[in-house]
Amino acid sequence: MDVMVECLRQAAGLVYFRPYWDRLPLQEGIRFVAGEVGDAVVTVLGCQGTNPEQAAEYAEWRIYREQFGDSYPDMDALRQFAREAGHFD
Q1: Is residue 89 part of a domain?
Q2: CB atoms within 10 A of CB 82
Q3: Nearest to residue 62, comparing CAs of 75, 79, 45, 76?
Q4: Containing domain of residue 44, as a range?
Q5: Rounded CA gap, 24 and 20, in Å?
Q6: What DSSP string runs through the chain?
Q7: Count of domains for the chain
Q8: What is the spatial distance between Cα 18 and Cα 83, in angstroms, rounded to a whole number?
Q9: Which of 29, 42, 40 is nearest to 86 (CA)?
Q10: Residue at 73 is within a domain
């Protein structure tokens, strides 16, 4: 199960970004789930007691993400990265 740190809805499905997507090859860091948004099960991340590994991964990502401040890519830039990964029309 992947942790989503960003997601973009598009006509054919959902594009999402995994933690540290900017350090991974595009196809690994940016993923696509085909179908209607209601066709997939998305679990909201629980607390340390419910989802300890995913919660820790997300907490580490947030610390990493905060280092970017205002220089973190905005939604237009994220769409462009998704296009480069072949996941956004």
Answers
A1: no
A2: 24
A3: 45
A4: 6-84
A5: 7
A6: -PPPSEEEEETTEEEEE-TTGGGS-HHHHEEEEES-GGGS--PPP--TTTSHHHHHHHHHHHHHHHTTGGGS--HHHHHHHHHHTT---
A7: 1
A8: 16
A9: 29
A10: yes
| Long-range pairs of 72-78 with CB within 8 A, sequence gap ≥ 24 | 75/8, 78/6, 78/8, 78/17
Per-residue pLDDT of the chain (89 residues; tens, 9 = 90+): 788 899 998 888 889 999 999 999 988 999 998 876 566 666 666 665 677 888 889 899 999 999 999 999 999 999 999 999 988 76
Structure token pair of residue 42? 């998305």
Determine how many CB atoms are found less than 10 A away from the CB of residue 17. 24
Within-domain flag for 77: yes
CA atoms of 31 and 16, how far apart (whole Å): 5
Instruction: Return the CA Rg of the chain.
Output: 13
pTM, entire model:
0.84
Q: Is 70 within a domain?
A: yes
